[in-house]
Amino acid sequence: MKRTKKKWLAISAVALLTTALAGCGNSNSNSNSDSSTSKPSNTNATASAQTETSKPADSGDVPTLVWWTIGGQTPANFDKAIAAMNDYTAEKIGVKIDIKVASWGDWDTKINTIVNTGEPFDIMFTNNSKYSQQVTMGAFADLTDLVQSESPDLYKLIPQKVWDGTKIGGKIYSVPTYKDSSLTQYWVFDDKYVQKYGIDTAGIKTLKDLDKPFHDMKAGEGKSFYPLSLTQGDGFNGFFNGYDDMTLGLPPIGVKVDDASRKVVSVLEQPDIMEGLKQLHQWYQDGIINPDAPTKTEADKARPFFAAQAFPGAEASWQITEGVEKYDMFQIFGPIYTTSTIQGSLNAISANSKYKKEALKYLQLVNTDPKLRNMLAFGELGVDYDNVDGEKVIERKSDTWPLAAYTQGTFFDLAVTKGAPVDQWEQVRKLNDQATSSTNLGFALDISKLSTEVANTKAVWDKYRYELLTGASDPEKMVPKIVSELKAAGMDTIMKAAQEQVDTYFK
């Protein structure tokens, strides 16, 4: 992988707008309103058999690819919207799609089950929290040569730096979503509370700066009001932004993004992280955070505050999906490139798919055809959205479309939602151009000889992370316990190997 010139500014994360505009990057309260979606119906979240057996497209039969992705509850017109897409793509490239939706709360478990059991699929959304482990398991096809021969326009569209960021062992196993591939973190307030309580958003730079406005809101709105409403899947979004996880997908191990020495550390034991965890715990005790946060899988709408990885204009879509008149969004961190931010949104092709070439051609069309791009991102034309200016500007008519646009393809052929800046995607390009680089950019940890330790340490982290990152547990008691169990599961072995690989890579 190429190394990138290192600079240091601030920091931020893969954007994910809302279900319609979504992020990695990053999954996660993806700047996408993952938190504002609800559980999908079983109709479209159930497992499917392998793609239909088909004859060549020119015989009149069109292969249907199974694409597993993440999103909200599927609406009544979901099948009709997909049918319209399929009419279009069957004519354009001789391929149809069967989109399967795993809910935000169920995605981790569902995707793990699919990969572990070998359930057939063709395309799967994945990200930095799972990607390297899934590649090591042999779940995904090697696309290094195929992406150039079968989808040359797609290969040309995405910058080499972004392709390099997806590589594992020097090979490409997924198509990255070229969007805000650098990370920028935002904090977002419902403007009615900003006005009511005189909140100075310009003066808010740290978690501690949120303490007064949160307590003012709590005191004024009452006992059942929670200024910081969290769900188990993400906790406080962006909490570990200051550390590069080396694509491991295990936040307790990382390198501080501006550390020139690139020292691999136990992240939970770092003073800044411990201070933040204590603040979250205090808010939980004070009733700032909802008491069911560790078990809550889907966020309520109209949140008074949330943190998200995003980009300019994201609030226009959040206002629709959250049902809020006006959101005040301000940048708190970034933009910055890490290998993990690039891997915040990826679509991989099954190693066992019968239709690898067709899958690449479909992903190429998603990334180069504005009409298909808008249909995937916004739903059924005339029902979920209307075109305002050709394929360039759309107006949302519903808030029920479940698919997260950040998971699908580039933002640079996507329409702008009415109300967002008309140059929104140019602003995203500028964020990418201005992004500084983690000192570890370009490095991805090779876990091929660490699969047991990685699996065991992730199991430990999964056991405790919901309570820790929602403030429910006391970090002074819980962190030593977690670290002890992580060490017993192989954390020291991973850290030693990581340090050796980092030192060798940057020698």
Task: Report on the architecture of this protein.
Helix 13 crosses helix 14 (370-378) and helix 16 (451-469) runs antiparallel to helix 17. The longest helix has 19 residues, at 451-469. By secondary structure, the chain is of the alpha/beta class. It has helices spanning 42-45, 78-93, 107-117, 131-136, 146-150, 152-157, 160-166, 191-196, 211-221, 271-285, 314-322, 339-342, 356-368, 370-378, 424-434, 451-469, 475-489, 491-505, and strands at 64-71, 96-103, 123-126, 175-176, 183-190, 243-244, 253-256, 264-266, 305-309, 327-337, 346-349, 385-389, 393-396, 416-417, 436-437. The model is unreliable at 1-59 (pLDDT under 50). The protein is 36% helix and 14% strand. It is built from 18 helices and 15 strands. The strands form 4 sheets. It has a 5-stranded mixed sheet, with helices on both faces.
